[in-house]
Amino acid sequence: MELKIDNLCKKYSKNVIGLKDFSYTFKPGIYGLLGANGAGKSTLMNCLCHQIHPTRGKVSFNGKDIYTSPSLYLRHIGYMPQQFCLYDEFTLFQNLDYMAQCKSVVKRKRKDKIITLSKQVGLDKHLSQKLSTFSGGMKQRAMFIQSIINDPDILFLDEPTAGMDPEKRIELRNLISDFSKDKIVLLATHIVSDIDLIADTVLLMKDGNLIKSDTPMNLEKSIEGNVIEISLTQRQIQEIPKEWTVSQLRRNQDKYIVRCVTRKKQESFLVTPNLEDVYLFYCKENL
Fold first, then answer.
1. Quick one: pLDDT at residue 287?
2. Using DSSP, how many helices (H) and how many strands (E) does the chain show?
3. What is the DSSP string of 205-252?
4. What is the pLDDT of residues 69-112, one digit of tens each?
5. In what order do the strands lie in the sheet with 255-262?
6. Cβ distance 5 to 174 under 8 Å?
7. To which CATH superfamily is domain 3-215 assigned?
8. pLDDT at position 235, please?
């Protein structure tokens, strides 16, 4: 199974470009998209989900162009957008049954599938409740169910754990990881730990460009020597060089432990980089 993107470009206007000649080949696995707001993550997902059409470029699924054979391609995908798009005045069961019908899930399998998936995300006791009574985290879990109700080969998740408490976020991460076997999963989130813990590959995006992709471990290794932790007074913090970016600051009695990401390799006060450091190193504008 393969989703191949060749030189995908999306121009919204003369001066606003969402994607710039994006090329990548996705095979089964979990891919995390990292980048600032406006980096092109949502534009990429919207192009791949047929929400918008690219200005130019080609996308093929198993060798077939997704724009010339859309109905065939759409049967293979599931999509969880960032915006809530289910019906508040419907019960959870009604919402999921309707979405299953839209996705051509056969009638005799729909009820059992809805019950099974609802149990997996802890919503089986709420099937008869209207979504207007749900918390934000419950609505996110309902959105996740609708995205996988057709057992898609490709799953697009845009901020899937937003609004969830830590326990439910962990549970959903585990479900995504379990579901991903033999699937292509694209995950865009601002919660870096979600990507760090389950993504096989991270794609770093900036200004509509794919600037780097690799495993989380390899990306972290690529900036070894560029992350330091130093103990400073409050006054010294104001004197940190402009080319250093503070990624973490915590108080320690009368001083502060300051974690910084630098473009220039350092020889002392080095610490092991994490994925947040990677994001700052490659994606932050002024570093």
1. 56
2. 10, 13
3. EETTEEEEEE-HHHHHHHTTTSEEEEEE-HHHHTTS-TTEEEEEEEEE
4. 888 899 999 999 888 899 999 999 999 999 999 999 999 999 99
5. 227-232, 255-262, 244-252
6. no
7. P-loop containing nucleotide triphosphate hydrolases (3.40.50.300)
8. 86
